[in-house]
Amino acid sequence: xxxxxxYHVFMIGGIGLGPGAHRYFSHRSFKATRxxxxxxxxxxxxxxxxxxxxxxxxxxxxHKYADTEKDPTNINRGFMFAHxxxxxxxxPECKAALETVDVSDLKLDxxxxxxxxxxxxxxxxxxxxxxxxxxxxxxxxTLWISxxxxxxxxxxxxxxxxxxxxxxxxxxxxxxxxxxxxxxxLFCILYTYGEGYHNYHHVFPWDxxxxxxxxxxxxxxxxxxxDVCARFGxxxxxxxxxxxxxxxxxxxxGDGSNWLTSNExxxxxxxxxxxxxxxxxxxxxxxxxxxxxxxNIIDKKNES
Length: 304
Ligand SMILES: [Zn+2]
Ligand SMILES: [Zn+2]
Known about the structure:
Elements: H1 2-26, E1 31-32, H2 34-47, H3 52-64, H4 79-83, H5 92-100, H6 104-107, H7 110-117, H8 119-138, H9 143-165, H10 186-191, H11 198-203, H12 221-231, E2 235-236, H13 243-253, H14 262-265, H15 280-283, E3 289-291, E4 297-300
Antiparallel strand pairs: 1-2, 3-4
Helix pairs in contact: 1-2, 1-3, 1-9, 2-8, 8-9
The structure holds zinc ion (2 copies).
One zinc ion (ZN) binds next to helix 11.
GO biological process, one term: unsaturated fatty acid biosynthetic process
Subcellular location: Membrane
Pfam families: FA_desaturase
């Protein structure tokens, strides 16, 4: 039962971070109805990572001044700094940048400021009390186990953001801009359900997909969720980048790699042996024979 709770609350927290604090509040990459915005804030509070206002302030500065002294999570200061220590060690340049970065849109948002004002109360109720008390009341879990299971869940959520600041700026390919530290890293893509296309995201931060591709084969679960919400009218004005602009940028500053295109992940998706899309190389055994569906030799591989 506890693993269920950890998993579900982890997912809810992740929605508050990826589509919520990140794509919606920080980057304004799509618009949302008020109920959906409140839902995202609810999830973000469960995740337990600062107020929406502060989260976005830090993240906007990170984008504007990435890899410099002004960057709050400057990767040039090492993995541990970008992953964890940054929150306790803002440089003077960074503090100045945090004060001047534009967050006027958020300060005009009454809901955002309401959360900001009463954050300790909301945080205690939603991030700590609610996930602890529900298993205790409904499934007779002990408070001790419930509390620590939720703390573990909080840690998992916290690391989603932390890996975005550390690993995503250390490892991976850079198909869009080889001059920035942000890169595309599969582990982070899976762990954050689609936020790990960080090279693309730093180049085109206004794209609501936070990636070139927003489909299931690219593990972009957050984008699929937003697309479903758009069908119900909860999300609208989703901003994207044209294929043309992406290709031009890739040619100009990319590292020549083509990380995680559909073909790379699911090279020729097929239903099984005999599918019309099956690659001829896959049908040929190591002796060079081509087989039909009944395993009868029908041809020898043409060596030319
Ligand atoms: Zn971002
Ligand atoms: Zn980044």
